[in-house]
Amino acid sequence: MANMIALGQCALRLVLAAVFGAQGLSQVSILVAQAGTPLDPFIGISGSLLVALNAVLVTIAIWLAFGVRTRVVTLIGLTLYLAAMFLHLRASLVAEVAMAEVLAVVLMALPLILLGGGRFALYRAGWKEVL
């Protein structure tokens, strides 16, 4: 039973890493072309800042895939993902689909935030065993 829970946590961690990575990579190529233009005068965030946000989201996805500090990394990744989704899809025509996707990601992230990444992580205790 414990092995099944650990495998489930590992699978959930990898799926969430794939979602974060796909979000980050899909938006970086679009935003590089718009790097100098402001996206919204009310927000005042330029495209280059959004490129940086998505690049950090890809880095979070890599760390999450390897299981480095899963609880903290998942929380940071979820925050960045929600910020990116808010900034990218605020003026979207398909708001219901976006909200369903955000709800699914939040529901995938909650067990990882509460329980951690499971036994099958590269560094279970973070970097303290490495350094």
Separate helix tally: 4
Total tally of structural domains: 1
What structural class do helix, strand and pairing data support?
mainly alpha
Q: Determine Rg (CA atoms, Å).
A: 16 Å
Shape: globular
Low-confidence runs:
none
Helix content: over 70%
Largest sheet, strands/sense/barrel: none
**Residue-averaged pLDDT, rounded?**
76
Fraction of residues in β-strands: under 5%
End-to-end gap = 33 Å
Quantity of strands, as a count: 0
SSE sequence, one letter per element: HHHH
Keywords: Membrane, Transmembrane, Transmembrane helix
Protein name: DoxX family protein
Organism: Gemmobacter fulvus
Concise summary:
The chain has 131 residues and is mostly helical.
